[in-house]
Amino acid sequence: MRKLKQLIILSVCLIFIAAGAVNQGVSGFLWSLPFVVAFIYVLRSFSVKSKIALMTFAATLIVPLAWKHEENKIIYPWIDSAFTATCAWEAIKYERGFTGYDYATLVPKGAEVEEQYVISRHVIPCDVDWKLTRVFVRHPNLGTLYYPVFSIAGYEATMSGYELDDAIKSQTLNHSQIHSSYELQSEWTNSLSLLMMWAAIPIQLLTGVMSFFAHTSA
């Protein structure tokens, strides 16, 4: 019975470690660390053979989830798939200090451009596929914003999730399965990563209790 309880604890720890491994939010793997510690602590009472087997199983599960997020097809299943675009696009290379990344930025023709930061401009040819090669994220205001990177006729460029949403809405960029930037990430890894919100539960409970007593005393 004791071993069964330990195996259940190890399983729960692995689930939360996996959630941290796929988490694209601002906390990343941080809130999985207590479960890593708990996993190692519980594992110490197992035999050497069992430890090796369980550690191998854990590594086999976690490493593919944590490996190279930007190009990980488990997290971003549409990598290597193609988008179709209208002709009215150009790639503008801004100074890195302005954008924070080295890729050119995809901009529809006629859109407002910060000319003082422009290094170069590149007209996107018509009738070519935009191949999704990777996705990176940023966290404005502690949120999660996806940046898809496209290879277009051998030229790599990106846009923010906001700009992708606008392009899809205006039908200047289309994909048969993606209708929002949040659909770039697989639904199940996104759902799993929500477990990393566990650290906020005590704060939410405390806020709720304080709010309750504030209303009752008013």
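The above is record 1. Record 2 follows with the same two-line structure.
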Amino acid sequence: MDSLGTWPRPVPADDRDFDVQVMRRLRTAPGDDGAPDRPSLGERLGTSLLLVVPVLTALAVVLLWQQWSRSGSVLLLALVAVLLVATALWWTARMKRAFRTAQGRLGSRLAHVVDHGVGVVREIALEPVAEEEHRRANTGAEAAEDSPGAGGRVRARLRLSVNPVRGSGFSTDVEAVYDADAALLLEVGSHGPVRFLRDDPEGTTVIDTRLTEEQVQQVYRGAALN
């Protein structure tokens, strides 16, 4: 595996099923301290202000505008402008802070839900993708580019032995759809990055098509050190 000679990447799959499973696990996943990570009361109140403050600002602007329409005071217009700018700056800063907090919490919990490893092909079974299924899978621009002479698609059923970044190795079966030309490159011994749910690795492993080259190298290094 040191050569990082990975298998050809399959046609990008619809990962909604896997993502739904991840979201279900995240609801009960622990944080770095091993306990379920829930926002504190202060964080929940702070987040609620993202909705409350703009509403209160809008009410204040309406009242000040009505006062200005009766008096014509420039001071009221200046007050409206200051109020809008101050609210916009506060709301933007608060939103960035909320996103940073959510991102940190998600990253902490995701590490306890999803893991990666290197899968090595032990058995291969290939079959053409049915024409009707092929048409459903190819829509828009992709369908326009896919001509009858392009070689079509092939479904590969792969028996993998997986060396995870953490934990014990295991064997599992995965399915992936490849362009026919790419599928010809598959062979016993081909390998590449996979991801899976930590609580059910054998039943949830999928070939990872989302990783950058740097992330792929990290997976290989981590699996080699495990």
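Residues 74-110 form the longest helix (37 residues).
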